[in-house]
Structures are given as C-alpha cells and as structure tokens.
From TrEMBL, chain A:
Residues 1-22 form the signal peptide. SMART domains: PBPb, PBPe. It comes from Aneurinibacillus aneurinilyticus ATCC 12856. It comes from the Bacteria. Belongs to the bacterial solute-binding protein 3 family. It holds the Pfam family SBP_bac_3. One of its GO terms (molecular function) is ligand-gated monoatomic ion channel activity. Residues 55-277 form the Solute-binding protein family 3/N-terminal domain. This is Putative major cell-binding factor. The keyword Signal applies. The keyword Cytoplasm does not apply. Keywords: Signal, Transport. Gene3D superfamilies: Periplasmic binding protein-like II. One of its GO terms (biological process) is amino acid transport.
From TrEMBL, chain B:
The lineage of its organism: Bacteria, Bacillati, Bacillota, Bacilli, Bacillales. Belongs to the binding-protein-dependent transport system permease family. The chain crosses the membrane at residues 20-46, 58-77, 89-112, 190-211. One of its GO terms (biological process) is amino acid transport. It holds the Pfam family BPD_transp_1. Keywords: Amino-acid transport, Cell membrane, Membrane, Transmembrane, Transmembrane helix, Transport. This is Putative glutamine ABC transporter permease protein GlnM. GO terms for cellular component: ATP-binding cassette (ABC) transporter complex. The keyword Transport applies. One of its GO terms (molecular function) is transmembrane transporter activity. It is a multi-pass membrane protein. Residues 20-208 form the ABC transmembrane type-1 domain.
UniProtKB/TrEMBL annotation, chain C:
It comes from the Bacteria. Belongs to the binding-protein-dependent transport system permease family. It comes from Aneurinibacillus aneurinilyticus ATCC 12856. One of its GO terms (cellular component) is ATP-binding cassette (ABC) transporter complex. The keyword Lyase does not apply. It is found in: Cell membrane. NCBIfam families: HEQRo_perm_3TM. One of its GO terms (molecular function) is transmembrane transporter activity. This is Putative glutamine ABC transporter permease protein GlnP. The lineage of its organism: Bacteria, Bacillati, Bacillota, Bacilli, Bacillales. One of its GO terms (biological process) is amino acid transport.
Amino acid sequence: MKKKVSVLSLVFMLVMSVMLVACGGKEADKPADANAPASGGTEKSSVAAAKERGKLIVGVKYDTNLFGKKDPADGQVKGFDIDIAKAIAKKIMGDDTKIELKEVTSKTRIPMLKNGDIDAIIATMTITEERKQEVDFSDVYFEAGQSLLVPKDSSITGIQDLNGKTVIAVKGSTSAKQIREKAPEAKVAEYENYAEAFTALKSKKGDTLTTDNSILLGMQKEDSSFKLVGGLFTDEPYGIAIRKGDAEMLKAVNETLSELKSSGEYDKIYENWFGEKPQKK
Amino acid sequence: MLQNILDIWSKYNGEYVSGLITTLQISVISLIASLLLGTVIAIFCISPFRMLVIIGRAYVEFIRNTPLLIQIFFFYFGLSSLDIQLSSFVAGTLGLTVYTAAFIAEAIRAGINSIPKGQMEAARASGLTYIQAMRYVVLPQAFKIVIPPLGNQFINLVKNSSLLGVIAGMDLMYHADIISTNTFKTFETYILVGVFYLTITVPLSILVNWLERRLKRA
Amino acid sequence: MDFIGAYSWPNVRYLLEGFLVTLEVAAISIVLSFIIAIVFAIIRYMKIPMLSQFVFLWVEMIRNLPLLLIIFFVYFALRDVGIKMEIFSAAIAALTIFESAMISEIIRSGLMSVDKGQIEAARASGLNYGQTLRYIILPQALRRMVPPIVSQFISLLKDTSLAIIISLPELMHNGQVIYNSKSTYIIPVLLLIAIMYFVVNYALSIVARRLEHSR
C-alpha cells in the first residue's frame, strides 16, 4: 500500500507539470480572452504598443493612501503615483486621459509587468538589485525609508524594541525582507496588501506595521490613533518599473521625470499630496 | 527546473515542513470539532422540536450558501472589531469548523434519515428514551453510512485550510507565498507545495474509496 | 458597528459592481467546466484507452489540490513557462480547471449508477449504443446528477471569492476595499456580502430541489 502511494505521488508530480502546461494553453485560447489586451512582450516597444492601443496601461496601487487609493464613492483612483502616471501618459500619448489604471499589489506587480498586462509599474516600488534582474527601473522619483507604525499608546520606539513582537508586513515587499534582517527576533506576519495589513494592525493582529514611511504616513492620516516611530532605518528609493530592455519606454519615462522636476510641476504634485515641499539633497 | 525545485527545497525545507505541520494540525482539530458540532446540528435538524429544527436548518442553509472566506474573515477581522481578539490559527480553525460542520450535519442527517423509522419506534417502544435510542440504535448504524462522505469532508478540510494563507496563518500555502515572492521562482515553489498537498490528500482519497467499496459490499 | 455609514449608496453600488463580476466569472466558468466535464466523463465512461487513464490521473490530481493553489498556479506560475493570462481569464481558467474535474466525477458516477442489465436489455431490443445512451442511460443518470451538480455550481459561485488573491475586482475584493477604510464597517460589509451570496445560492438550491421532484 505504502509503496503504491509513493509511486502514485511520483506519477502525479510528473503528470502535473505536463498537463498544467497543456491544459493552460488550451484555456488561454478561450473566448473569455477576447477582450484581453494584446500583450506587447519584450520584442515590441511598449510605447508603440500603447500608441496603437490608444492608451497607456499603468499598474498602480488601489489601497495606498496618498500614492494610489481607490475611492468607492466616485470610483476614481487618486494619489501621487497616479499624478506621475498621468504626466507620463501626457508625454507619450499627448493626452493625460489616454491612460488605463490597473490594480497591482506588491506581489502581483512584477508578474503583471512581465506578462504584458501593464506597460509600467508606478506603485511605491523600491529599486533593488534583485528586482533589477527582473525589470528595468527609471530614475528615482521618490525618496522613502522604512519605518514603523504603532498605536499611540505603544511602548515600541524603534527596531530595538521588536524582540518577540509581531511585525505586520506585506507579501512581496522589500520591508518584509529587511525587517527579518534588522530585527531577527521579531515574528513577521505577511498579508496580501497594505489595506489588509493596516486592517490587521487596527485589529491588533500585530504590534506594529512596517513599510515605507510615505505609505505609513498615508495610513496615519486616515487614522490618527497611530504614530510613526523608529525614524528611517533603510533607504527606499522609488522607481518606475518597465519591462527589461524596453529602451524607448525607459527614455520617455526618464525624460518626463526630469521635465517635471525642472518645470516645478513635480514640487506642486508633491506638495499637493504630502503638504510640504520635497527636501533637496 | 528540477534543479531549481531541489534548490528551493534545500533552502526552504524548514518552512515547508513547519507549514505542513500547521496545515495538518488545523485540519485535524477542525475535523474533530466539526464532527462534534455537525452531529449536534444534525440532531437538531431531525429532532421532534420545531424550534430546534428551524435553528438547525437555518444554520446549515446559511453556512453552506456563503463562502468560507467570509466566515474566516468574520472570525479574524470581524470579531476583532468587537474587541474579541483571535489569532489566525484560532480564527482559521473556527471558520473551518463552522463551515465544515454544516456539510457534516447534512451528511449525518441524510445517513440518519436512511435508517428505517421503524427502528426508532421499536427502540422507543422497548423503553429507551429518545436520546438513548439515538445513541445506541440509530447513530451507530448511521455513522457507517456517513463515513465515506465524512472522509471526503476531511479531504476538503485539508484543501480549504489553504485559505489561512490569506490571514498569515503560517500554513503550507502561506509559506509557499512567502518563498515564491522571495525567490521569484513561482512555478517551482508551487509545484513543490502542490506535491505536499497531494501527499496528504491522495492517500486519504484512496482510503475513502476503499472504505466506500468495503462498506457497500458489507 | 456602523451599519448606516457602511451601507451608504456609493458603498452598496460598489459592492453590486463587484457582485456583477462575481456572477459573470461564475457563469462563464460554469458553462466551460460543464462542457469539459461531460467530455471527461464520457472518455472515462467509454473507457477510451490511454485517454481514459490520462483523464483519470488529471481529475484525481486536480480534485486533491486546493483551489487557491490552482488559482495561484494558473496566474503566477504558468507565465514562467510562457502561458500568459490577464486576471479575468486566469480566474475563469483556474475555476474551470478545478470545477470541471469535480463535475466530471459527478457525471461519471451518475452514468455508472444506471443498472447494467437495463443497458443490455436496451441493446438486445435493437437500440444502438447512441440510442441507448440517449433514451435509457442519460434520462436516469441526469436525474441523479442534478442535485450534486447544482451544489457544485453553488460551490463554484462561492469559490469565485478566492480570486481576491489575484485582485479580481469581485464582491469580496470590493468589500475589502470598503471595510479597510474603517474597522466599524467590517461586520456590516461582511454581512451584506454573505447575504448577497446567500440569496443567489439559496435560490439555486431551491431550483435544484424543484427539478429533482418534478421529474
């Protein structure tokens, strides 16, 4: 019996890979895909693809206050990242309404970009060496740093207080990885997205939530019974991610960013969302 | 690809194993708890008291017709907004128990209903109380009939416990998620976790099939 | 708990939009998985060599895996081997893969439940195989299949909620967007979502009961 089972499992394992591939291929041709966007792939510039399609498709957060948050009341997504996305659409398409926003999370964004679902990621994404092997990044468009969000009455003042505490983070984020290195004695619980993570903190599922200060600030603005502590213990330079080797898109994005900065438009957008001028380094 | 799978395994086997243990713990605890709760609900449904029948039916219909994810979220996030704090393990186990109990109650009710009414009447006539007649005459026979569907429910439990991954439940699915976002090797990570689930569920399926055939013959 | 705030019209409208996506995904998946399930069941019932064993292994494997894993796999893992789908199609594909395996087993056991003697009698009285299937086996088998198939459809509708993990903008997802803004909304929103699912699923189960009795 035991032998039979293990043989069966082995067969399953083999069949699994072969058949999922075969069947998945079949599924992909189904009529449900009729309205799917033509996936650009790396061989074709996504600038040309976007122009052909008549709109630029950008992956943004829907759950991150100040950067990209969907408002159920009017169905609009609003935030700093959205304004940057619109500026890029204006540059490439000549019109900032020729844009389609798609929801991404830290976990889904790289697969979606590689897949061709989206032309660019503007979603509070830190530039890291590991990610550079998967995607190309624009110049830095926002400087953030990892910090901690705690309830006002919490005794935690910084990462040195995290021993034995539960730290909430988001799957696929740099902050989840870094907190393991910076506070190895802390327990880390990772959730699907920032909204769920913040709900978990509010629901007392952990002692603190860690991610970039800019995102935490957005949460703190929504619910003033929390505060930021511990300063900035990492550098998190945000970049706009595009498919590897997509030089034309990279150029267009970087040009837009430098034009925004030289025209003062960048400062205006920044001030509009964060209530202060960006600090010059 | 096989090399990648082996690499992931050698680097993360600790996570996989601890996830597997959590998955098994949750499944077994939920099975026992939902067996108890399911039996009680089933008895409600077939009891001679109208009030109990209504409660039992309402429970079964409401739970069976709403997604498990809602029930887990209710115990995890919902109760917490009422200041009842449950860990993901407890909330997940409760959600799975409440959900599975409805299906188990249905299976048991069907099993009990398949025992001829005459047996109950005969037991009552020979002086047993309603509870005694249930306990010694009807239930033992009914359990034989409901064992295969109960086995299937256990398989479902193991599969459904993967939902704990969404509330940081530290089970197999959760660890697979974390590993895949750290390694970017999604395909290999999920193949491996699939094999883990199969090593629990396939032997169970074989066992259930075997039981089914045996009980049919008996 | 803040029922009044949570049930403001924009919130309810947003939930209904999500429910529409849920129903759409479920309806397409039901049709596709039913068709595939019939093919699988017939392959196994007629014991077509090779193909039959292949389908058996496939169905058993899928039935023994968590749906959540299949959704992840279809959406995240398959693109590593060149099969790319956007969220909407990935959700449908994953649900179809899973539910077609479940339904094919229901259909097969329905077919198997028809007494062999009847089939022999029908063949002996001059009906060909197709006619026997059409007039003798299917009418009886279908009747036995209706209740479990409908309850599988109900499962499918419930299971669409798992597509929340790939950010499909369905009912659960939209609910999460709403209650994440305020903890006092959590219970009211979850309750409303549960009621929406319940109404449709309960209606389905009543239809199933009617069908069962009317035959």
